[in-house]
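Lecture 7 notes: from sequence to structure.

We start with a single chain of 193 residues. Read the sequence below before looking at the structure.
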Amino acid sequence: MNKKTLMGSASISFEHLSGLDNIQIQPYVEIKIDAIHNICEKNGFNLNYTAFINLFVLESVLNNTYTFDTQWKLQINQKERFSVHSIQDIGKIINRLIPMLDNAVNYINTNSCVESIDKMYNTNPLYEYNPNCSGMDTHCIIGLIAAKLSNNNYSHIREIYSNKVDCCDFLESTKHSFFAIRDFLDAMDRTTD
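Now the structure, written as C-alpha cells:
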C-alpha cells in the first residue's frame, strides 16, 4: 500500500519469510520525505526511508511500554511478526492487524512532514536508540538534515551529532557521508546570503 504525500511518499508493507511449516509476516509503516532523501543522494548516502517502524513496535510506543530493548525482545521472541501455520490463522491475523493499520495511517498522517521528522529525531534525549530508523548512524544523518530544514537549533544539533559520529564505531563510508552532508548543509547558508 503506497500513498503520495505533500512532501514525499508513505507506505504500509509486509515482509514475509517462508519456513518449513509456516509463513512469517512482518508489518511495517514507512515514510519518505523527498527533501531529506535528495540531500542524502546528493552526498552519496543511500537512505531507504526517512522513518520506518514495525507495527508491533509502534504499538508498544503508543502504549507507552517501549523501552530501549523492546525491539530486541520482540525479535528474539518472534513477537514482531505474524505466523501463519494454517488457513485458520488468517482470520485471527486480520482481526489483530486492523487496529495496527489504524496506527500506521495515524503514523503517516502525523509524521509526513519535515517538522515532524525533526521532532521524531531531535527531541531529547538525542542519544537514545530511535525505533524509527535502522540505527544511530542514520539517526544522526536524518536528524541533522531535519534540524536544518526545519530551522530547529541546527548549530547545537550539528555539534551533538558530529561528536557522536566522531566517537562511535560507524562504517567509514557512513562517517564520510555524514560529514559531506554536514558540509553541504553548512554551505546552504552561504549560498542564500
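The mean pLDDT is 92. Keep this in mind for problem set 3.
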